[in-house]
């Protein structure tokens, strides 16, 4: 009897929580790719927007050996936009719908913990975001002849900006899922917020072109720092003078993304419920 009592908590410990979370990743991926509209608006949307911008805005930007095509110039911003769509919009819409159709209520009646659920969502986001960005970069290289960085340090910087930015955005997406009052209204709430953030964060237009007051307001948003970090990877070093401070500010990028990661973790744990408080 004593053995049974002492062994029971172990089945619900950290190891089991993580194991169940990893198993949920496959389930979440199957659900994701079965939803055709979600695949279009979150998975393919950055690539489609990149094709539109790279096709309409042709020519070169910059001078001398640092001259690059407009297709190269728009690539970092659309990568940052893809991270935002995968991390914020995807989970926010999914969780709002699952809360509305009773999926989360049923999960709440099982031994599964929110941490296990979060692991499944974050794992799904990482897999889909990697595939999404790989597709975007492949189109840039094959269709528009974009030359990728050859410096291993640049790709190392790409990796940690991608990872930190995606985790922070995913946690913020989980928190944002608590805002819509129903699954039907989730798209009307989430999509305009995500689009607005993209436009004021330097995804579609240069951040320096925004009014000063808007730069000050949007300068704290995580996507602004993800986009700036991606520009430091894909653009010539001379383009750093176009940034607000005249530098890439790599250290500050890391600090800001870590701050948003912690904020997202706190907000997601505070706001997440298996059912709405007023449901």
TrEMBL record:
PROSITE patterns: ABC_TM2. It holds the Pfam family ABC2_membrane_3. It is a multi-pass membrane protein. InterPro entries: ABC-2_transporter (IPR052902), ABC2_TM (IPR013525), ABC2_TM_bact-type (IPR047817), ABC_2_transport (IPR000412). The chain crosses the membrane at residues 39-59, 71-96, 125-146, 158-179, 186-207, 246-267. GO terms for molecular function: ABC-type transporter activity. Its main location: membrane. The keyword Kinase does not apply. It comes from the Bacteria. Residues 37-278 form the ABC transmembrane type-2 domain. It is found in: Membrane. This is ABC-2 type transport system permease protein. Keywords: Antibiotic resistance, Membrane, Transmembrane, Transmembrane helix. GO terms for cellular component: ATP-binding cassette (ABC) transporter complex. One of its GO terms (biological process) is response to antibiotic.
């Amino acid at each position: 009897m004593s053995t049974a009592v002492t062994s029971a908590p172990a089945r619900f410990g950290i190891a089991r929580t993580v194991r169940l979370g990893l198993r949920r990743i496959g389930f979440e991926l199957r659900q994701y790719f079965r939803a055709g509209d979600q695949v279009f608006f979150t998975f393919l949307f950055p690539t489609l927007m990149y094709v539109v911008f790279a096709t309409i805005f042709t020519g070169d930007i910059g001078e001398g050996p640092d001259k690059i095509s407009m297709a190269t110039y728009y690539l970092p911003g659309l990568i940052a936009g893809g991270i935002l769509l995968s991390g914020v919009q995807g989970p926010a819409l999914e969780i709002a719908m699952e809360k509305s159709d009773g999926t989360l209520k049923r999960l709440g009646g099982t031994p599964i913990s929110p941490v296990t659920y979060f692991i499944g969502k974050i794992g799904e986001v990482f897999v889909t975001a990697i595939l999404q960005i790989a597709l975007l970069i492949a189109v840039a290289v094959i269709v528009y002849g974009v030359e990728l960085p050859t410096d291993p340090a640049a790709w190392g910087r790409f990796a940690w900006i991608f990872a930190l930015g995606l985790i922070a955005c995913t946690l913020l997406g989980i928190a944002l899922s608590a805002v819509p009052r129903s699954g039907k209204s989730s798209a009307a709430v989430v999509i305009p917020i995500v689009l607005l953030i993209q436009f004021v964060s330097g995804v579609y237009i240069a951040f320096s072109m925004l009014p000063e007051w808007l730069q000050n307001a949007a300068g704290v948003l995580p996507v602004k720092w993800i986009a700036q970090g991606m520009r430091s990877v894909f653009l010539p070093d001379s383009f750093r003078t176009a940034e607000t401070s005249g530098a890439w500010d790599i250290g500050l990028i890391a600090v800001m993304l870590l701050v948003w990661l912690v904020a997202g973790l706190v907000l997601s744990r505070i706001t997440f419920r298996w059912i709405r408080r007023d449901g």
